[in-house]
Write a structure and sequence with these properties.
The protein has 352 residues and is α/β, with parallel strands linked by helices. The protein has 2 domains: 162 residues, Rossmann fold; 186 residues, Dehydroquinate synthase-like, alpha domain (Up-down Bundle). The chain is built from 13 helices and 11 strands. It has a 7-stranded mixed β-sheet with strand order 1-2-9-6-5-3-4, with helices on both faces. It has a two-stranded antiparallel ribbon with strand order 7-8. Strands 10-11 form a two-stranded antiparallel ribbon. Strand 10 and strand 11 form a beta hairpin. Helix 7 runs antiparallel to helix 8, helix 10 packs across helix 11 and helix 11 packs antiparallel against helix 12. The longest helix is centred in the C-terminal third of the chain and has 19 residues. The protein is globular and about 60 Å long.
């Protein structure tokens, strides 16, 4: 097991470390799960926690649709009815939806209670569980409401990945690719090799360190941390689009689309070399052979750009690449250029 940052525990010994810390807790304990992690991950966790006393389980439906104010309200009331107080501990066991939702729940209930994350998906392990971003969706707008508050502890136990279908693993790998594009070409190659080998332990440690090192320098996303939004400006727009259509896709699938479009913008606006741009597209397409676009002439994802959190005075600001390992935040991009990127992506999908 390796400690990364002040509160991250990554590796086979993470649950043992969690059990040791539970011995120091004397308040009520609540587990937040969805029906999948309740069935497949929580029993593994509970079997290893000898220092866990009485606890209660809060379950929500799986899927992005649970990241909404109605579900949060029910959870607030459930905690209140169970007499949860400021000394209670909330343990969020699940993927990125659960860590976003549970972080928001923990940061707002009675103005904040302690919460831990136990990420069970690749996406949550390398990205969502770290960095202190919490959030819920409102009217299908991704993470419109949220807070900045880091989990007190994060326990990454890679064997949980064995319960995931390949589509979920692939979704999480979009964030690994993003970290590789931000951090450097050699590490991106290592990341892609880990996908080929289906061996994720070392790449999880590396990806967590990339994120934690950036967040430690800029928790509240005033500058450097905005680089971690690479692929997410248009990616979130794609994700919101499919949510509204009632046919949601996975977060990483939307991020993969965003990485493709924003690489195209990087080529157009920051003069990323043509060979590098084509290599990025080729490598992403190797892992994401299926891209999503439901209607050939529909480009209404542009509507959702107005809600992006990086916007300034109504102007879209992107994180883009000059080259692999050279990411630039706060790049001003006009709606015309964004529209061109969306058209390029749409045509890519229909050439497949």
């Amino acid at each position: 097991m390796k400690q990364i940052g002040a509160n991250g525990w990554v590796g086979q010994g993470a649950i043992t470390q969690m059990d040791e810390l539970l011995a120091e807790h004397d308040g009520l304990v609540f587990f937040l799960v969805d029906e999948n992690t309740h069935a497949h991950c929580l029993p593994i966790l509970l079997a290893e926690l000898s220092n866990l006393g009485e606890y209660e389980i809060l379950e929500v439906p799986a899927g992005e649709e649970s990241k909404c104010i109605e579900v949060v309200t029910n959870l607030w009331l459930a905690l209140a009815e169970a007499n949860a107080d400021r000394n209670s501990l909330l343990i969020n066991v699940g993927g990125g939806m659960i860590t976003d939702l549970g972080g928001f729940l923990g940061s707002t209930y009675k103005r904040g209670i302690r919460f831990w994350h136990v990420p069970t998906s690749l996406l949550a392990m390398v990205d969502a569980a770290f960095g202190g971003k919490t959030g819920i969706d409102v009217n299908n707008i991704k993470n419109l409401v949220g807070t900045f508050l880091e989990a007190d502890e994060v326990f990454v136990y890679p064997p949980f990945l064995q319960s995931l279908p390949e589509r979920e693993l692939r979704s999480g790998f979009a964030e690994v690719i993003k970290h590789g594009l931000i951090d450097g070409e050699i590490l991106l190659k290592d990341a892609l090799q880990s996908w080929n080998d289906q061996n994720f332990d070392a790449i999880i440690e590396w990806a967590v360190k990339v994120k934690v090192d950036i967040v430690d320098k800029d928790l509240f996303e005033q500058g450097l941390r905005k680089r971690l939004n690479l692929g997410h400006t248009l990616g979130h727009a794609v994700e919101s689009y499919f949510l509204e259509k009632g046919t949601p896709i996975l977060h990483g699938e939307a991020v993969a689309a965003g990485l493709l479009m924003e690489s195209w913008l990087s080529h157009l606006l920051l003069m990323m070399e043509t060979e590098v741009f084509h290599a990025i597209v080729r490598d992403i397409r190797k892992i994401f052979p299926d891209l999503y676009w439901p209607e050939k002439d529909d480009v209404s994802i542009l509507y959702y750009l107005q809600y992006d959190k990086k916007n300034t005075a109504g102007t879209q600001r992107y994180a883009l690449l000059k080259a692999i390992g050279d990411c630039v935040e706060n790049v001003e991009v006009g709606l015309d250029e964004s529209s061109m990127a969306v058209h390029w992506y749409r045509n890519l999908v229909y050439r497949l």
